[in-house]
Amino acid sequence: MVRTYRVVSCFKMPKRSKVVPAPTGEGVFTIDMSSTSTLDIATVSDQRVPVQVEMQARHSLIWHLLIDLPILLLVAAVCILLEVGAIPSRRSGFRCNDPDLSFPHTGDTLSISLIAAITIIVPYLIIWAVESTLQLDDEYTIKQNKLLTSAKTAGFIYRDYIYAAIVNLTVLEVVKCVVGSPRPTFFDLCKPDTARTCNGSDYVSSYTCTSTRYSRYLQIDSSRSFPSAHTSLSVYCGLFLAWYLQRRAFSWHSRSVLVVPLLQVLCIIYSVTCPLTRITDHRHHWWDVLAGAFMGIATVIYTVLVLCKNFSHPEVVSTSDISSSDGNNHQSVRRLLASGPRGVVP
């Protein structure tokens, strides 16, 4: 049985392979598939490729440690200082007996620690699970490398996700400190001293919190209503994952039709429920939530289209994928013939 294949002209055929030139067609040859001889197609001529890849990875790591890590730590430190009130921020005034600021403080339905855990941990787990499943469908990747390759791909996407989340959080903290809008529970948390003596609807711009029931952090936080950070982060996280699943996970139809839509619905429910709890808990005004949602949506669009290129990243291939199990940098006939343009003559 003789089959004819068309392959890329850069492949060099070793002499031991039984190759018979085809009668017509430039760049076409025939392979005797009944032969018991071993057919090896072209070794990687440049043995320096793995070394160059390793050097590039090492240089990239050095740059990350010397530049990116200090910047990340600096931004995180600024956010923490702004959050705890170590950096002075503006406090807007209030009107006496304002009913919109007179709600009792009842706490948070979804705490900031829970939001932080969901925002940081859940996305990587979902991204890694999707990329691992996609690697299972790749019959041309060496089995030992599938777990590592999926982890690398997930890491690249997660890196962009975290980068945008940090940018979003930084902008939120700065805006909160600049605006200094009082929360709906302002009177209960702060108990401003001038509120006892002011009359009618007079506007008070200078005051001091006198509450002994709540901590200093909550008293400072009582003037940071706009915009809603809970809303922005939850909208960003939920919509990012829903968009990612739409672009990367719908190849799961061969396994399950409902898993991906179910995950998307859960993500959207989370991105809607969290903002609503900020209103029902009287932690934010409706316009605070609306502004936070807008910032979250803007961050999603920027992250997906600009940073993640709409999740069209090229497949991450390790240098070991170039080599076969014999360590001679040979690629299998099956992979080479499948990856290049083919023509079969019956």
Verbal overview:
The chain has helices at 49-84, 112-136, 143-179, 186-190, 216-221, 229-248, 259-280, 286-307, 333-339; strands spanning 2-6, 19-21, 28-32, 41-43, 94-95, 203-204, 330-331. The protein is 52% helix and 6% strand. The protein starts with a strand and ends in a 7-residue tail after the last helix. It has 346 residues and is mainly α. The longest helix has 37 residues, at 143-179. Helix 3 (143-179) packs antiparallel against helix 6 (229-248) and helix 6 packs parallel to helix 8. Mean pLDDT is 77; it is low at 4-19, 25-29, 37-42 and 314-346. The protein has a three-stranded antiparallel sheet, with no helix packed on it. The protein contains nine helices and seven strands; from the N terminus they run ββββαβαααβααααβα. It is elongated and about 75 Å long. GO terms for molecular function: phosphatidate phosphatase activity. Residues 158-304 form the Phosphatidic acid phosphatase type 2/haloperoxidase domain. InterPro entries: PAP-like, PAP2/HPO, PAP2/HPO_sf. This is (African queen) hypothetical protein. Keywords: Membrane, Transmembrane, Transmembrane helix.
